[in-house]
Amino acid sequence: MLPRHSQSRPASSFVKIVEVGPRDGLQNEQRPISPAIKAELINRLARAGMRNIEVGSFVSPKWVPQMAGTSEVLSLIEPVANASYSVLVPNQKGLDDVLNLLSRNSSPPPITEIAVFTSATDAFSKANTNATVAESLARLAPVVRVALDAGLRVRGYVSVIITCPYSGRVDPRRVREVARELLKMGCYEVSLGDTTGAGTPASVRAVLEEVTKDISVSQLAGHFHDTNGTALANIKTALDFGLRAFDASVGGLGGCPYSPGATGNVATEDVVYALMGEDSYGDVGEPYSDSPVVQGPAWDVGPVSLPLLADTGSWISSVLTRETTSRAGKALLARKERERRLSESAQAKL
Ligand SMILES: CC(C)(COP(=O)([O-])OP(=O)([O-])OC[C@H]1O[C@@H](n2cnc3c(N)ncnc32)[C@H](O)[C@@H]1OP(=O)([O-])[O-])[C@@H](O)C(=O)NCCC(=O)NCCSC(=O)C[C@@](C)(O)CC(=O)[O-]
């Protein structure tokens, strides 16, 4: 059955969601997580319909020990058609490791894209990569060139677009300058990272007003951590601005090791629900008849199944011995449980 609003959607309503849970979501976990669990997470996300997944990083294991087994994770991925799998790379060594794996004759990993990252402040850049912003840009330029020559797509990140945990409030002009440098190098898109999750609709609007002075919204993505519960409001602000790409992390996993106190990314399930409403429930029950929902046309987020995503968020959270922080995930699982009980009691009455 077609989702209720699919026929009335304008063609421009597609919103790309980049699932960053396996990388951004897990990199800060203190206990080692096995490559098999990480690969299982990635495979479940792909089966749930996520078509852009950042699966790990080739960074120094001394800096981020949790990402050390990424090459083994890659060997366990069961690639899904039309899915793009990417990895984070900080320098030439990281790219060389990726290219070595890709040049293998037997079963090269399904990587089609890398992501490079820098920051809007020197203080954060030094803490995260042992280099100032200028040094990191100089380091990344040849990396991007070699990756593009090898046929990989390259995405860029600018961290701390609102507030830096080390140097405070960030000047939006700096965000624009750094994003422009990444695009000049050849990144097809720059993801603007509210690393600390300090952003509000007003501060996000201020950054976007500045950044879009000379960068097209089609080259920008939003990456909002949900530390203060404002991530969805920030996504709405960015959507109104014309951005159509957002990063999210299943179950709301994550946090950056160099942004103390910041919580995970906005939960993927919450973004899917916010963009699609009850259309995203699929076969999990009919809309509540006592609350007629008046909806405008939903956004198109691709072939995503919210029920499968919610199961995935709940599964990985239980592996990490915690609860999912996704509100939509919890609500949907509660709804499923209610449907199950109703059907059991209906069966019992027969
Ligand atoms: C950039 C470096 C490497 C500089 O770190 P460094 O210590 O200056 O590097 P180095 O070149 O001096 O090398 C030191 C050691 O690391 C090794 N090394 C060097 N490079 C690699 C590599 N690629 N892979 C594996 N090993 C590597 C290298 O071989 C050497 O090993 P040793 O000789 O001592 O045994 C380091 O600072 C680093 O890896 N930083 C990454 C930190 C990180 O991953 N942070 C989290 C991701 S960013 C983020 O989460 C924000 C984002 C993207 O989500 C958006 C947002 O929310 O804002």
UniProtKB/TrEMBL annotation:
Residues 15-288 form the Pyruvate carboxyltransferase domain. It catalyses: (3S)-3-hydroxy-3-methylglutaryl-CoA = acetoacetate + acetyl-CoA. Its EC number is 4.1.3.4. It is an enzyme of class 4 (lyase). It comes from the Eukaryota. InterPro entries: Aldolase_TIM, HMGL, PYR_CT. One of its GO terms (biological process) is L-leucine catabolic process. Pathway: Metabolic intermediate metabolism; (S)-3-hydroxy-3-methylglutaryl-CoA degradation; acetoacetate from (S)-3-hydroxy-3-methylglutaryl-CoA: step 1/1. PROSITE patterns: PYR_CT. The keyword Transcription does not apply. Keywords: Lyase, Metal-binding. Pfam families: HMGL-like. GO terms for molecular function: hydroxymethylglutaryl-CoA lyase activity; metal ion binding. Belongs to the HMG-CoA lyase family. NCBIfam families: PRK05692.1. This is hydroxymethylglutaryl-CoA lyase.
